[in-house]
Amino acid sequence: METPNKRIVVLGGGFAGITAMVRLAQDLARAPGLELLLIDRNNYQLFTPMLQEAATGLIEPVHLLRPIRPLAREKGFRFQESQVEAIDLGWKAVETDDGTIGYDYLLICMGSVTDFHGVPGASQRSLTFKTAEDAALIRDAIVQAFEAADHESDENRRLALLTFLIAGGGATGVELAAAIHDFIHHDLVSLYPHLSFREVSIILAEASNRILADLDTDLATVALKVLEGKRIDLRLNTRITEVSPEEVGTNTGEKLRTATVIWTTGVQAGKAIGALPVNKDNTGRVIVNAMLQIPEHPEVYAIGDNCRFQFPEDKEPLPPNAQVAIQQGLTAACNIISEIRGKEKCSFTFRPMADLVSLGRRAGVADLFGFKFHGPTAWLLWKTVYLLRLTSYQNKVRILLSWLLASLFERNVSRFRVQ
Fold it and tell me: 138 and 129 in contact (C-beta within 8 Å)?
């Protein structure tokens, strides 16, 4: 392969990376002597906003995966499936498990990993919720808990099996708690006649004094009431201090018996990002300037979950969510294009568009361009907006069919025994 005169490398095929690469390809794919290269350890993009539906059998996890190679062929960039092991900013090189790759411009958008905050036992005994594999494991764990409880004679052990604790009251934890409730009480209830569903408990533990901290306060209050109506056990001001095989310790001194803990709170940068010799916050995320560059290395941009960006007038940095990642991807790409063409770069600006939270069947809350909705209207908005945001027409059709089938038939509760 002929060595290009210049190479732009994008690390990560999530919302930030795909958005940036598509924008770069629109303007630069035919530029002579320039290579556009996207690197990710997976050959697909995961559509995370619907992950809780995959975790509860409403849709198949594979329906949330968009292959990257057809997109690369269509847009004119190159894709390489490799694991990034290190980034050498001095030598302008990326170390992967498939060799070293040099760059002239670099976009770091490798997402984040779960932060267990040093809680003893949490990383070993909790299920995480960030990947399609995680969704399949959670679905498998829920079904397995009911299968085991169905023939368990010891009451304490049965109660632990039928208790599901979700750590984190952000949008991810709230949506997952509501989805698990619907899966259990609308689909599993008739399949286990020997179990009393009064014994089933879904606990949502949040360290702060409110759920959905990034959402409008009034909508968060509505969501709280919906969860209470579903009899989800909300534990505010409750921080998990230890996770053992069938018990969780809390800062209140209470011991919660549960065999299933799902950790949805806290993110931190991965190992390769954490090792960079640049300014980072306490979670390892790279601190960038107004143009989304690493100040010491202006040819390197960090966007999405692995960067920390904060407007001077704000008390907190922007949250690590999809709409922030997409808008940062566009700005970073445009700044690289401007620099190559000798034009002035621009500062990043953020326009809040839609905050959507699903609360289960025909329930939700939504803030759409400042207009607030809740109930069935918000639920329908959630379905519509995220269906439209799916970029794969095949997956749109598959998910629509899955929703239709779920309204007509029970969900499939066969165990996959995912390892």
Answer: yes
